[in-house]
Amino acid sequence: MDKVLVATTNRGKLREFRHIFSRYGIEIISLEDMKEKITVEEDRETFLENAIKKAKIYGDFYKIPVITEDAGLEVEALGGYPGVYSARFYSIDFGGKEEVKDNKDVANINKLLRLLKNEKNRKARFVSVVVFYSPEISGIWTEGYCYGSITEKPEGDKGFGYDPVFIPEGYKKTMAQLEIDEKNRISHRGKAVRKLIEILSRLSFEI
Ligand code: IMP
C-alpha cells in the first residue's frame, strides 16, 4: 500500500496522521486532494458507528483504501459529554448553547469551562476510533484512549480542539503545550493508529 485517503477535513488531525505515517513511507492524501467532493454527516450515536459510516461511504465512492477517525473528549463529571458531540458541543442543547465569537474550538472550550466551574472532579479522557477500509479486506477498527484532566483555563497554542484545556496524566503541561511527536506518542490518536499499523503489517499489507 503506498497511498491512503485519510478522510477528514480537520487540519489538526491530518497533520498528526501525516506525522505518524511519515516513517512508514505511505503517502497520505486528504479530502482536499479529491476533485469530486462529497460530504458525510456524522449523525450516529457512537464513535465507531460514525467512523464506519464515513469509511464505507468515502471508500466506496473514491475506490481507494481509506482511513477514517471519529474522536472526542469524554468528561466524567458531565456523564461522558461532549463525547460524539465534541466538534459541535457549543451548539447542542446539553448545558445551553454557546455563542461562536472567535471560532468553534474556542466556543467549545468556553462551554466546557463554564459547565465545569466549581466542579472538583475534572477527570476526562480523549477517545479515538480509527477505521481502515479497503475493497481487498472488508475493514479493521482500533481504538485509543488518553486519560487526563481539564484545567481551569486554556494554556498553549499547539494542537487543536480541546488540547489547551487537557492535561494528560503524569504531565504538568496541557496537550497544546506539547510538540507534535510527544502528543502523538501519548495521544488517543497515536495509540489507535499504531495499533492499526500493527494489524495491517500482520496481514502483510506491506506497511
Ligand atoms: P470529529 O472530527 O468528529 O472526530 O471531531 C473530533 C472533535 O473532538 C474535534 O473537533 C475536537 O473538538 C475534539 N478532539 C478530537 N481529538 C482531539 C485532540 O487530539 N485534541 C483536541 N481535541 C480533539
Question: What's the layout of helices and strands?
Answer:
Layout: E1 3-6, H1 11-21, E2 27-30, H2 47-62, E3 66-75, H3 104-115, E4 123-134, E5 137-150, E6 166-168, H4 180-186, H5 188-202
Parallel strand pairs: 1-2, 1-3
Antiparallel strand pairs: 3-4, 4-5, 5-6
Helix pairs in contact: 4-5
Bound molecules: inosinic acid.
What helical percentage do the residues reach? 25-40%
The helix/strand order is EHEHEHEEEHH
Distance between the termini: 7 Å
Find the CATH topology: Maf protein
CATH architecture: Alpha-Beta Complex
The description of the largest β-sheet is:
6 strands, mixed
Strand order of the largest sheet: 2-1-3-4-5-6
Low confidence ranges: none
Strand content: 15-25%
CATH class call: Alpha Beta
What ligands are attached or bound here? inosinic acid
